[in-house]
Write the structure tokens for this entry.
Amino acid sequence: MGTNADKSGARKTVAVNRRARHEYFIEDTVTAGLVLVGTEVKSLRAGKANLAEAYARIQNGEAWLYNMHVSPHEQGNRYNVEPTRPRKLLLNRRELDRLAGVTQQKGRTLVPLSLFFERGFAKLELGVGQGKKLYDKRETIAERDRDREARRAASLYDR
């Protein structure tokens, strides 16, 4: 039996929700497993997933991920499933109860941040986010620009 690079414990990132940190203040993160079918796993390993419109919700004591797009596998034929179907998230009871309590608070939501493989299993990093107002977004952009200018000035000074 040969060595398998996927089982080494290294993280292989499949998709990142770049807009999440722009749209939300992320207060806490948690890692959840995903319930997938075989063709979805093959598509994810090929990097064909999109978290842009995805969101998570806790219903009836279970966590669910909605609107994550996983492209159908090319050789999947009849075994392919709907690309944006709801997918169950695997969390332990304590985490579920804590997240359910936090999301009951006004303005808090579960935002998928990244999708990755760890030790051969598909995992999703969820963040507890509070939506930013327009002026918060502008402040974040201004701060990023100030940091960039400072780094640029420092690199010019070092020459």
Q: What stands out?
A: The longest helix spans residues 134-158. Strands lie at 11-16, 24-34, 49-50, 55-59, 62-66, 69-70, 87-90, 108-118, 121-131. Helices lie at 20-23, 38-45, 93-104, 134-158. DSSP finds four helices and nine strands in the chain.
